[in-house]
Specification:
By secondary structure, the protein is mainly α. It is built from 13 helices and 3 strands. It has a 3-stranded antiparallel sheet with strand order 1-2-3. Helix 1 packs antiparallel against helix 2 and helix 6 packs antiparallel against helix 8.
Length: about 290
């Protein structure tokens, strides 16, 4: 099975243009399946074996979303092996995905966003950097992986856009607002480093995703925001506020870098207040 996993990983990288993060997760899921199989082989793994594997995952208290993701990995893996003529059977075709719980995204109000992004102390270089990080997150709606991957060559202050590398190594241009541009300029102007990466740690090395989470978490704690708020909440807030102010759903899809509109549609569930307001003003019998 190790040989199959290696071939599959190369396929993901070369043909699917998958990110390192995706390939790592797929490898981890397949290693878990291999461990479960033990002395058994892929050729002998049938529908019942797969059901037992999913049952074992449920016993580990994994939620439906995690189990569904692992099943999706196995489906892609088996399809690849079938296509390459390496395997004849595909037990995943008989397995249905678990029903997913619907979770509405956690987002901040505009006042909470203002309190959060203005909380870093501009008297220090770290404070200037942290302000620039928070402003960039909210201004562009980019993911953590996209933010830590930003280099100075990706910034077009004159055009008001940043070039980001999204999921599947797909590049896109994200508009960036004046306040975020000003915050980045102030930070870079005080920074003493030739590093091309925009955001650096105290050792003048590019910040990692973990480092950014710690920084954002620090200011969430300082401003006493609600429980469950994370760096991704800034992305949720970005999308929700745009829709609340009348942005088109397909435009928001493009801005977020979503491949499918259905992914973006979750934000329509949290714009009820705006819809009610429009209804109250427009309907003659409201």
């Amino acid at each position: 099975m190790d040989r199959y996993i290696e071939k599959f990983a190369r396929y993901l990288e070369i043909e699917r243009n998958a990110s390192e993060h995706t390939i790592f997760n797929y490898r981890r899921d397949l290693e878990e399946f291999k461990k479960f199989l033990g002395e058994n082989t892929l050729e002998n793994a049938d529908y019942l074996v797969l059901r037992k594997f999913l049952g074992a995952l449920k016993e580990k208290s994994l939620n439906s979303r995690s189990i569904s993701r692992k099943l999706s990995c196995l489906r892609t893996f088996y399809k690849f092996l079938n296509r390459e003529g390496l395997l004849k059977n595909n037990p995943t075709t008989s397995i249905s995905s678990p029903k997913l719980e619907k979770h509405l995204p956690i987002f901040l109000t505009e006042d909470e966003i203002t309190r959060l992004v203005e909380s870093p102390n501009p008297a220090s270089l770290a404070g200037l950097r942290d302000r620039a990080i928070l402003e960039t997150f909210y201004s562009t709606g980019i993911r953590i992986s996209e933010l830590v991957g930003l280099s100075q060559g990706n910034l077009d202050f004159f055009g008001g856009v940043v070039k980001v590398m999204g999921k599947g190594k797909k590049e896109r241009l994200a508009p960036i607002g004046e306040k975020a541009i000003q915050a980045i300029r102030e930070y870079l102007g005080k920074r003493d480093s030739t590093q091309s990466a925009v955001f650096l740690n105290k050792n003048k090395k590019p910040l990692t995703a973990r480092g950014v989470r710690m920084i954002v978490g620090k200011y969430i704690h300082l401003t006493a925001l609600r429980e469950g708020v994370s760096p991704h909440s800034l992305r949720h807030s970005f999308a929700t506020h745009l829709l609340n102010r009348g942005a088109d759903l397909r435009c928001v899809q493009e801005l977020l870098g979503h491949a499918n509109l259905s992914t973006t549609q979750i934000y329509t569930h949290v714009t009820t207040d705006r819809l009610k307001s429009v209804y109250d003003k427009a309907h003659p019998r409201a």
